[in-house]
């Protein structure tokens, strides 16, 4: 019967908690008593529920939890079921006086306590509870990649072991306050994540990543996993360090989150880690994870920080943390008898001290609000620190506070070593802590220091960590056996010692700048040991020779005005060329030489210390070939001419078009029909191997005579104006009826049909001819129009047009169909209708036409008629 009831209860519990419901959680632990080799703790899981959540399940009656031994990651005592003992209402912190669109909050908190005896171990224990079920649609999280829904939750507490509880001390976790604050979107807000510690430990607060639900797929997940636990996946631009955006931060001393709220209303996961320090030594990290609501509301009011400090100078600018447009008037009192009604006044204090500041907004109105704060004015205060870095990895770096304070001592320090992979040791509250980095790189270290006067300042500075100390030796080098060389070892970290080996022909094996004079090739090794004890080893080799070797390139000949690189192979270290004229650099091994003389001898002196040797290179110069392709020329199309190039012994012409040959100096250009630019490449046998090119342009003149239209018709007594083109000189034949046979545009008065021949020429002697046939009709000027046409594509009578004889201009020619539609119109003589209307061929039918024209005497003619289109 008992098993049956348990089964029914388990089924009921699974169904009851299937919906999302958890809004946040915290795990607290309380030390009860010491039992010699064990300690007894009361561990309490707090779960929060939003009672306004529609369709959400209630808080579970009991929860499965696990406790893991951090020494070996094993489950201690099996999985346990913890009953809920109470469910209480979460207090709502007082809303501001004038709040528009105020949200409705209704949260409850379930308490799940258990008492457990934990055997003493080194690394302590981790309490774990996991669930699938946060509330839905959280703005700053991504969807669960495995289910597509929202991510789950893990709530933990890490109870320290003997490696933290040094000297037999005991520890109680911090306890976060549980009140709820209103947050209006886009407005300044204050969110209280402060905690109390019954041991009096100092607490440092940080925003941190919330933990997802691991493998939990429902609220009844019965096997919660131990560490390590996975971080929540945040939706950009949010993160665990910026859960409410970049404009909201946490005060590391008070646990107050403040700033400007996101502009999007909705639910946001906020996770805070509270680190406890006792006498400057880290003990434990306590976490609270809560889903806060950003509401679409607005509020007026006076809001100030709890306190302010101005430790740079005596001038301070005052700002209301509430920037709502509902704030209409402002009254500031500065605590020294002075006031201001400005919205953001700036005030300079005459003396140091702590002043009480008061701000009243909307004084005398229904939304009047007053806030008070304290301002400490104690200039000057500046955070400074020194380190023993650059330092090696895995070696303690000493950090030394050097904060400057004119008034009062510095009494608090918050260090962040910029090394999150080191876990809890990444921070410290000691004045002069040490920290070891296990990876080389540059780390940004932050120190926040403060004084009892309320002064606080922050410094962020880089610290360089190296794998080994930086040690720089000279490059491998060469000396002569009679030389002495001073070597220098350079380092970045101050202090330290050096030791050279072998102790052979060296002045001081412990010097950073010893003298060496080996007579055989020797490799010297330096061992640098820095003040922290880490070391670096490097070597370099000195090669020793008894003489200098030099091998020069053969003597050579180049084209005059060219340059050549002088090539020498030598083991020398210093170089000197003479003469220096024409050299790019006389002090390098292989300079470029550009001599002007017909022959120059260049001498190199190659030196190793006190040893040297010389070598010569003779450079002779020969002028370039004097290529000449001849003058540019012009010829008539269809004729030929000869090219004549000079300046060398061999010739090559391009292009090859129209040439009789391409490898002789004087080829013939035969009958070109277009102009050509020829390039001749000239070489000689005098010693300059490079070709020289020249060009010649052959312009081909092609005359085209044009006597006018091939066939021209006129009527009796009509003068004909001829217009010839194509040349500079004109000759018409025969001269019958012409006004002048030697001009381009004579007038003809023919008495009968005649053919004229036009001959044109130019100054170069090029000629061309053309003819024009003049047909004379013994008719009166007029338009002669056919009565039918056949547009059938046979090239005969395909278009309908008037024949204009003695007509100067066709002023208008139109054609209409039987429906009175205009099917064709033109004023161009010789243009006719093809029998189509709107691109469609017309069928056999009769069409009406009308024409107007002006004859050669200036008389106006009008004519109309019909035409038959035959298909």
Outline the structure in words:
This protein has one helix and 73 strands. Strand 68 (807-816) and strand 69 form a beta hairpin. The strands form 23 sheets. Strands 6-8-2-1-18-17-14 form a seven-stranded antiparallel beta sheet, with no helix packed on it. Strands 3, 4, 5, 9 and 10 form a five-stranded antiparallel beta sheet that branches. A five-stranded mixed beta sheet has the order 20-26-25-22-23, with no helix packed on it. With 871 residues, it is mostly beta strands. The termini are far apart. The chain is flat and about 145 Å long.
Structural class: mainly beta
Low-confidence stretches: 1-19
User: What profile does the largest beta sheet have?
Assistant: 7 strands, antiparallel
Please state roughly what percent of the residues sit in beta strands, choosing from under 5%, 5-15%, 15-25%, 25-35%, 35-45% or over 45%: over 45%
> Separation of termini?
112 Å
Q: What overall geometry do the principal axes of the alpha carbons give?
A: flat
**How many β-strand stretches?**
73
């Amino acid at each position: 019967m008992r098993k049956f009831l348990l089964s029914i209860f388990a089924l009921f519990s699974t169904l009851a908690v299937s919906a999302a419901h958890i809004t946040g959680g915290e795990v607290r632990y309380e030390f009860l008593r010491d039992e010699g080799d064990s300690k007894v703790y009361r561990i309490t899981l707090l779960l929060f529920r939003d009672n306004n959540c529609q369709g959400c399940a209630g808080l579970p009656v009991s929860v499965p939890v696990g406790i893991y031994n951090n020494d070996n990651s094993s489950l201690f005592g099996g999985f346990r079921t913890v009953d809920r003992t109470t469910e209480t209402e979460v207090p709502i912190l007082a809303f501001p006086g004038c709040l528009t669109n105020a949200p409705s909050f209704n949260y409850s908190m379930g308490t799940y306590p258990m008492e457990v005896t934990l055997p003493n171990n080194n690394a302590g224990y981790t309490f774990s509870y996991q669930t699938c079920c946060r509330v839905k649609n959280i703005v700053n999280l991504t969807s669960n990649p495995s289910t597509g829904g929202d991510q789950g939750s893990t709530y933990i507490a890490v109870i320290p072991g003997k490696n933290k509880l040094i000297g037999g001390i005991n520890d109680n976790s911090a306890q976060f306050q549980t009140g709820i604050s209103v947050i209006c979107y886009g407005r300044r807000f204050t969110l209280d994540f402060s905690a109390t510690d019954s041991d009096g430990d100092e607490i440092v607060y940080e925003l941190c990543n919330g933990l997802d639900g691991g493998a939990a797929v429902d609220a009844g997940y019965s096997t919660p996993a131990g560490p390590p636990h996975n971080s929540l996946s945040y939706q950009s631009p949010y993160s665990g360090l910026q859960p409410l955006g970049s404009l909201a931060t946490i005060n590391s001393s008070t646990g107050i989150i403040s700033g400007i709220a996101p502009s999007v209303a909705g639910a946001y996961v906020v996770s805070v880690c509270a680190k406890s320090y006792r006498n400057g030594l880290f003990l434990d990290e306590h976490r609270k994870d809560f889903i806060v609501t950003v509401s679409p509301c607005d509020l007026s009011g006076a809001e100030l920080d709890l306190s302010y400090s101005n430790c740079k100078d005596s001038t301070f600018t005052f700002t209301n943390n509430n920037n709502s447009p509902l704030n209409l008037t402002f009254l500031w009192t500065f605590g020294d008898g002075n006031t201001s009604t400005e919205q953001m006044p700036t005030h300079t204090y005459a003396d140091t001290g702590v002043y009480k500041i008061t701000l009243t907004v909307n004084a005398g109105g229904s939304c009047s609000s007053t806030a008070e704060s304290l301002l400490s004015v104690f200039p000057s205060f500046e955070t400074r620190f020194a380190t023993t870095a650059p330092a090696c990895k895995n070696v303690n770096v000493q950090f030394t506070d050097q904060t400057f304070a004119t008034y009062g001592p510095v009494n608090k320090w918050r260090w962040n070593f910029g090394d999150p992979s080191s876990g809890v040791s990444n921070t410290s509250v000691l004045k002069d802590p040490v920290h070891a980095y296990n990876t080389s790189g540059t780390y940004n270290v932050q120190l926040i220091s403060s004084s009892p006067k309320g002064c606080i300042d922050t410094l962020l500075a880089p610290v360089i960590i190296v794998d080994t100390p930086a040690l720089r030796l000279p490059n491998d080098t060469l000396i002569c056996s009679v030389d002495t060389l001073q070597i220098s070892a350079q380092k970045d970290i101050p202090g330290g010692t050096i030791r050279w080996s072998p102790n052979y022909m060296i002045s001081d094996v412990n010097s950073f700048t010893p003298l060496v004079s080996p007579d055989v090739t020797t490799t010297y090794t330096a061992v640098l040991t820095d003040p922290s004890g880490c070391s670096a080893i490097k070597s370099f080799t000195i090669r020793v020779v008894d003489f200098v070797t030099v091998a020069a390139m053969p003597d050579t000949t180049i084209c005059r005005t060219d340059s050549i690189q002088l090539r020498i192979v030598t083991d020398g270290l210093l170089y000197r060329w003479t003469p220096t004229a024409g050299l790019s650099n006389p002090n390098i091994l292989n300079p470029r030489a550009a001599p002007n003389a017909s022959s120059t001898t260049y001498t190199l002196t190659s030196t190793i210390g006190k040893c040297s040797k010389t070598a010569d290179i003779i450079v002779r110069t020969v002028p370039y070939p004097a290529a000449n392709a001849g003058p540019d020329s012009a010829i008539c199309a269809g004729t030929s001419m000869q090219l004549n190039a000079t300046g060398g012994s061999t010739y090559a012409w391009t292009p090859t078009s129209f040439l009789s040959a391409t490898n002789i100096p004087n080829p013939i250009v035969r009958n070109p029909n277009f102009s050509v630019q020829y390039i001749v490449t000239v070489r000689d046998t005098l010693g300059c191997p490079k070709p020289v090119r020249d060009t010649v342009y052959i312009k081909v003149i092609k005359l085209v005579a044009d006597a006018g239209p091939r066939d021209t018709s006129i009527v009796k007594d009509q003068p004909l104006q001829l217009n010839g083109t194509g040349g500079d000189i004109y000759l018409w034949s025969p001269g019958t009826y012409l006004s002048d046979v030697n001009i381009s545009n004579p007038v003809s008065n023919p008495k009968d049909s005649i053919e004229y021949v036009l001959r044109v020429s130019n100054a170069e002697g090029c000629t061309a001819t053309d003819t024009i046939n003049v047909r004379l009709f013994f008719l009166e000027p007029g338009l002669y129009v056919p009565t039918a046409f056949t547009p059938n594509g046979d090239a005969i009578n395909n278009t309908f047009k008037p024949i204009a004889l003695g007509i100067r201009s066709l002023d208008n020619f139109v054609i209409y169909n039987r429906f009175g539609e205009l099917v064709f119109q033109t004023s161009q003589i010789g243009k006719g209708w093809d029998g189509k209307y709107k691109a469609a061929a017309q069928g056999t039918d009769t069409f009406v036409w009308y024409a107007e024209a002006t004859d050669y005497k200036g008389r106006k003619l009008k004519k109309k008629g019909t035409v038959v289109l035959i298909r």
